[in-house]
Amino acid sequence: MTTRYRVEYALKTHRRDQFIEWIKGLLAVPFVLYSQPTGVFADGDSISKVGEEAHRRYAEIMRDIELMIDDHIMHQNQDDPLLSKLRMLVPTAGPFFTRLPLEAAFKYQDRKRHISSRRYVAPSFNDVRLVLNSAQLMAVNNGALQLATFDGDVTLYDDGESLLTSNPVIPRILDLLKKNIKVGIVTAAGYTAAERYYERLHGLLDAIAGSTDLDTTQRQNLIIMGGEANYLFEFSASSRWLLEPVPRERWLTPEMSKWSEADITALLDLAEAALRDCIRTMRLPAEVIRKDRAVGIIPLSEARISRESLEETVLVVQRILELEQQRQKQHQRRTSVMGGGAASLTGRPVPFCAFNGGRDVFVDIGDKSWGVAVCQQWFGGIRPEGTLHVGDQFLSAGSNDFKARSVGTTAWIANPAETVELLDELADLMQKKLE
Ligand code: IMP
Ligand code: MG
Hints:
Enzyme class: hydrolase
Number of strands: 11
Protein name: IMP-specific 5'-nucleotidase 1
Bound molecules: inosinic acid, magnesium ion
Order of helices and strands: HHHHHHEHEHHEEEHEEHHEEHEEH
GO molecular function, one term: ATP binding
GO biological process, one term: nicotinamide riboside biosynthetic process
Family: Belongs to the ISN1 family.
């Protein structure tokens, strides 16, 4: 996924996070006005003065955005979101479950990344993304974090790899459990058997089993939500693969239990036909994989499917499925007007998530908003402001982690090393709170 910011792609609106771009635009103004690109030969004193001035200006802007988010939250809580100024400026701005201390977060990241000292490179997309992450960590730390959920591929380990014993994220996750924070691995990888999850996650599972620090309850505070929102496993020290599948009737939310098997099969059939069409028309070196709750395409042996083809496939399948769901809704509305009765009005379309997984494309039943919601419910009804989902997919077509934004707070990382850094930052904040 490292090449995904290639200019050609970044220019497309569907590949932009408007909130981050907007903040970047605001920071570009003091950068243009105060940076001294011609002063390469200036003395150290005047260079550091310029840096201080840029720092002050950037921090002021972050403070102003922070206040605008407060105003947005006030209107959101009063149920009149249209009056939010932020919403006028960034129409895609979603709900905020916590306030965001952006000024403090900026100061923290500026100490780390020396953003204000740069004279040629303006505050970037990644600078802003990391400031937002820090602000979110500060906010959940204040509001007492209860549940941390993690995506798998690219967040905990490299794409397609497994969580090995040597992975530095393991002691950090154990530390969360030790602090009585619940942990969910919410991954799109969908398997019905515990053995497959053990294969992918054994480093973490073995570490939990072998830990002398964790008590039985803390161990039980790890769950795996697989296939986005389709398979739940709980930790079980006595099971062969250290995981025990939990039957659906014990964890489906009331809304999810209304999804009918017939609708699920029909949706996957349609998705499969659309994927086969894409393979044919774009001559993709790919094969179709059909599972009970997902359908996808994966590359044939050594082949690689180009990123453009993967994105095109996602957009095509998404469109076809959405059109079909709209057509069904219209049909239901018409039949109910003509006296079809209440039965036809209850049929809600089954949610799905079509996304580009980097090397493959999958269409899953449900999405990570449902997966994280199941974790919240499983642990007794944890609120969105007490939940943090960490993931890498917030921008690519389908972006499966983005969906979690509607049920909890989120942190957007670019690789597993950033997840480790993020957890260290969180541990520092928690330590400071205790001092
Ligand atoms: P995540 O990053 O942990 O959400 O995992 C996404 C990756 O899991 C995809 O890119 C696929 O390579 C892999 N995967 C395996 N099985 C499935 C499935 O049933 N649905 C979606 N992705 C799957
Ligand atoms: Mg991922």
